[in-house]
Amino acid sequence: MKKRISVTKVIEELELDISRATIIRNINKINKQLDGKNEVINLYQKEYVPNMQRSKMPWKIAAKINALPEKGVIVKDELEELYDKLSKMKEILDQCDGNLTEATRRINSGNTILGNVHISRQGFGKNIERFKKVKEAIEARNKEKQDREEK
User: Fold this and answer.
1) pTM
2) How confident is residue 74, by pLDDT bands cut at 50, 70 and 90?
């Protein structure tokens, strides 16, 4: 907002491999988790976006934006995010003593650390298989990183 550029332009400048819709969906998800009480998100959605096409931003909105602290964009590693989500699924499966049907039912109830997620038993099984592969990839990458640091 401070640089008055669009989400699409930020994606291009930072060479992100993510769609605009995904970013907006994540912003909405965060806002929902915070019960709509995040002042930066509210400023962005309710004041900045409706006025960003104007040649000059209204001074009240510009003053609010200028008062915000300067912060960089946080780019998360997709593999780390996937590993985190899949490890939570594995944890739920372990709590259900390896019973895929029970774990799927528990996840679909929305009362787990995953939140409000719906998944089929077959999809859950595939995710558990994917967890093993992702875990191996993370471990290999961490070993590679550690080897580079030792040199």
Assistant:
1) 0.49
2) low
